[in-house]
Design brief:
The structure is a homodimer of 480-residue chains. Chain A is of the alpha+beta class. Chain A has 14 helices and 23 strands. The first copy, chain A, folds into three domains: 261 residues, Bira Bifunctional Protein, Domain 2 (BirA Bifunctional Protein, domain 2, 2-Layer Sandwich), CATH 3.30.930; 105 residues, 3-Layer(aba) Sandwich (Rossmann fold), CATH 3.40.50.800; 73 residues, C-terminal domain of ProRS (Translation Initiation Factor IF3). The N terminus of chain A is likely disordered.
Chain lengths: 480, 480
């Protein structure tokens, strides 16, 4: 909005990624630090990305999966948290409570860090018979977790936005099927919409969600060698149902305990997107999430100004389907403007000057790779469409190459250690024992990310860390 | 979701509207009481109405008005509230604070009761020059007001959902123009989408928003003789800008203070909708906000069952654009099903039995007036479309008739008193003095609602309450 003193990004991604990331987020106007420590203002440009994620995902879950949106309260009584013991333990340290003065006569109220407990209290009244199942509900809302660690724009903050789906099923099979279906939808969203490739897999016992039977995850890999958990889908088994007294009269006229899952993605995705694609010039947005797909910059000289502006406006109209920006201001040079829209991550730039008009052409410049394309004005709409499609596809491909080139299959503890030291993803045999995993973290700083979904085959060999029989292949890396 | 013990509405709207309203809200599955006093769970059917309101309104403000959506934090520092004195006074009693333990080293944090203060703090950094104006931002979020009065589903609760628009302008003229534009959009939303007619006008000094220059309002009139303030648009003048240090370098190269407005509608609208249209059988929804525009109920007899089900499914497919429900269950009688879908407020019911099939017909029944229409199957799509349109229009017309028949122009204090006693809206001359208004409330229980927008003509005569010269014509009534 306002012109900043220091416009461009002043630090290189390769030199100080943390400072670079913050500058890109702030200077491209996605977000700003709010006055309350650990919170942020999601500015219109950042929020527009969230809205794209919302509409993409609603379309995938509402009709195809039969999920309905709803809204549950922000405030959760303390006793609800305590009902499912593992869950309570997992969240206790980061719950924010409201002023005791307001609840003098009753129990303490938490500001929701996640909504399992308040939703399942309702479910226990809503579900009576198998006819009420499956029950599939989702909510888009704000979440508060009073982080005591350092916070980071989008990636870790005391308040963030997310969706949380909470479903209940008659059978384990249906429950597991949807749990997997959703993690696959998350992968698709991350890759198709955000061009951000992810590893998909299952969390270990140590890393699974507090209270879940097992957790599936998508993990993106950031250029600083840290994994970013981007979405999780939990098969909750029957433990919450038992704790919250959810039961149903089955087809056999007997009382049964249902199966549940829960799953979520958050505004953290926007942080992953920024880190994955952006460069030393600023933000790079995949065309699918860009609100304005292109900017038209006429090259203005005194004598030909009117003619060029007229043609630029014609082109703006012709390309309206791409929601173009046009910059007719005369105070700044074309070069200054180029930098400005590169900083903002507009996918394509169209330059048009008097000589281009003579040739009935314009120059298209791609934000991701700087490629210049001379295009006849009559073909422009088609070429733009193609180029946006190419850009989306190539951004994903490049990011995939980076991800896979960072995976190292390690066979020994020393190979593992050097992979982690080099900030790679180590793919290793593993015993699965939480105490072994704890030691690995203490020694190397790495945590387990996930076991690939197709990796359930027989593993032969020992866990290179403890020497016990390995049970699984798994990815380890540093992480956010 | 679950079949309830006591299905239907057990009290008449005319006999105990408060109990009737609660039953309609709960039994039609729009909402339920949450465990924390004064909060509610907005169930999928209720939330679907909110989503319709959201998409309708985004479409009106985003492109046409240039308003961008964003998200500001839930937590607001105490010192921000104190910056604008009138505003602080207006909100202080109902602010919920978070646990002091969390902010030991800093100031108290409020859970947002409205976001003027935290947004304008950002604005003071975002706005530098006239080129940054107008700045038009909106957010959809949850709001907390720790009501100590009795709460009521949708109409008054400790947490609710709303949108709040906050814009900044170079000139008073632009600011006032948009302030009015928005209140007119609210009227249109209320009437076109919800079929709920409203009075539109200006609030008195006493009733305007805390900190505003003046407030415009839309006021619906509920069947119990109480007005419901459904949306407000405030011209904030320059007082917030001054308190928060928002200024801009003008076209004249000098520093200026900008003009601001703010405006909001909330989930309260859903309560108004329920009260306005629903009846002793349950919910009545205007077709525009109904997720499922119709339900198909085949009349099943043993011999013709298969044939009828087949035809019913054909019709379901043919009418898919109306997102139809179909009820093929055999455990309940058609009569039972009719009541069930009437309770739920599905706009049209299609009955189809073996005799109808012989005649290539079905029977359409309208939820709002019970009218039955025999329709040829081949014409069905067209007729449904027309009937939905008629229903929407007639619901608004009937509600308008009710509203206007309840307005009484009163010339004296005694006429005024009997109008209020009869739970009507009194339209009266008024001096505008807050102390006179306070007395009227003490004596009659009525509060001023608004001065019609076109009522700025010269008024002759005295204020019938205090005898001073009247300044305006105004509506008074009891209210929520």
């Amino acid at each position: 909005m306002n012109k900043k003193e220091e416009k461009g990004i002043t630090v290189k991604k390769s030199e100080n990624i943390s400072e670079w990331y913050e500058q890109v987020c702030l200077k491209s106007d996605l977000v700003e630090f709010a006055v309350v420590k650990g919170t942020m203002v999601i500015k219109p440009k950042g929020y527009a990305i969230w809205e794209k994620i919302q509409s993409y995902f609603n379309e995938k879950i509402n009709k195809p999966l039969g999920v309905k949106n709803a809204y549950f309260p922000l405030f959760i009584p303390e006793s609800f948290f305590k009902k499912e013991a593992e869950h309570a333990k997992g969240f206790n340290p980061e719950v924010a409570w409201i002023d005791k003065e307001l609840t003098k006569d009753g129990e303490r109220l938490a500001i929701r860090p996640t909504s399992e407990t308040i939703m399942y209290d309702s479910y226990s009244r809503w579900i009576r018979s198998y006819r009420d199942l499956p029950l599939k509900i989702n909510q888009w809302c704000n979440i508060v977790r009073w982080e005591t660690n350092t916070t980071k724009l989008f990636l870790r903050s005391r308040e963030f936005l997310w969706q949380e789906g909470h479903c209940v099923y008659e059978t384990e099979k249906e429950c597991e099927k949807d749990t997997l279906k959703v993690i696959e939808l998350y992968k698709k969203l991350s890759e198709d919409l955000l061009a951000m490739p992810v590893l998909i897999g299952k969390k270990t016992e140590k890393e699974k969600f507090a209270g879940a039977k097992h957790t599936y995850t998508i993990e993106a890999f950031m250029p600083d060698g840290k994994a970013l958990q981007c979405g999780t889908s939990h098969n909750l088994g029957q433990s919450f149902a038992k704790s919250f007294g959810i039961s149903f009269l089955g087809r056999d006229e007997k009382k049964h305990t249902p199966w549940q899952n829960s799953w979520g993605i958050s505004t953290r995705l926007i942080g992953g997107l920024v880190m994955t694609h952006s460069d030393d010039k600023g933000l790079v947005l995949p065309p699918e999430v860009a609100e304005n797909k292109l900017v038209i910059i006429p090259i203005l000289f005194d004598k030909t100004k009117e003619k060029v502006i007229k043609k630029a406006k014609e082109i703006e109209k012709m390309l309206s389907v791409f929601n173009p920006l046009i910059d007719l201001s005369e105070e700044y040079s074309p070069g200054y403007k180029f930098s400005e829209y590169e900083l903002q991550g507009i996918p394509l730039r169209i330059e048009i000057g008097p000589k281009d008009i003579e040739k009935k052409e314009v120059v298209i410049v791609r934000r991701d790779n700087g490629k210049k394309i001379a295009a006849k004005i009559k073909d422009l709409k088609r070429i733009i469409k193609e180029e946006l499609k190419n850009m989306q596809k190539e951004m994903l491909e490049r990011a995939k190459d980076k991800l896979y080139s960072n995976i190292v299959e390690t066979k020994s503890k020393s190979e593992f250690k050097s992979a982690i030291k080099e900030r790679k993803i180590a793919f290793t045999r593993f015993c699965g024992d939480p105490s072994c995993e704890k030691k690995i973290k203490e020694e190397t700083g790495a945590t387990s990310r996930c076991t690939p979904l197709n990796a359930n085959k027989k593993i032969t060999g020992d866990c290179p860390f403890c020497g016990k029989a390995a049970k699984t292949m798994i990815y380890f890396s540093k992480s956010y």
